[in-house]
Amino acid sequence: MKGKTMKVLVIGGRGVIGSAVVALLSATHQVLVGGRSSGDVAVDMTDPASIEAMYQAHPDLDAVVVTAGHVPFKPLSQLSEADWQDGLNDKLMGQVRLVQSGARHLKAGAVFVLTSGLLEREHIRGGSCASLVNAGLAAFVRSAAQELWGQARVNLVSPGPVAGDERGAEAFAGFMSISSEQIAQSYLRALSQPLSGKVLEVFAEVTR
């Protein structure tokens, strides 16, 4: 679909990364913002019924970009069963649901761009749940891309700490941050280029 104006839903488009993605994509595409409580399209990625209803109401989407998803950051010894389930149901299964349901509802050639994070291969104190979720997303995207070959494309953007976002500054002490505008370019690449099953890492290289 390179060169074609696409109708793109950005779920989480009011967030730090999401707003940069919306700004970049809006220059060449028709962009809708989706969210649980704000945006153009109402969707709760933790609720399968909400996702189904969203796709039934918007079957003409060309692409779905997800920049939303929550995981708890706590020391391993303090993570409860509810914490694990919260992270798995939200950031992991929420994005899985969006692809699985979307593949049934959207026309051939649809594109899904999901979000994980550098904790798939780097580690911080309190990041065990995030590491599990991010690794699961990477494995899912690689496998789903094979099963959806010829029907839909699925890619994953794995960003590091975002410059100016103070929420995770302490947890990611010692990690180099990059701008949300730089990160947004990887979403454009995942959307526009003939890629599927790719994990696009976008963070300053960690000293080893």
Summary, kept brief:
It holds the Pfam family adh_short_C2. The chain is α/β, with parallel strands linked by helices and 208 residues long.
Give the number of DSSP strands. 7
Give the fraction of residues assigned to helices.
25-40%
Q: How is the biggest beta sheet arranged?
A: 7 strands, parallel
Overall outline: globular
Structural class, from secondary structure content? alpha/beta
What's the CATH architecture name? 3-Layer(aba) Sandwich
Oligomer: single chain
What are the secondary-structure elements, in order, as H or E?
EHEEHEHEHEHE
Number of helices: 5
Termini separation (Å)? 39 Å
Query: Which ranges are low-confidence, i.e. pLDDT below 50, for 5 or more consecutive residues?
Result: none
Mean pLDDT: 94
How many structural domains?
Answer: 1
Assess the beta-strand content as a share of residues.
Answer: 15-25%
Given this structure, which CATH class is correct?
Alpha Beta
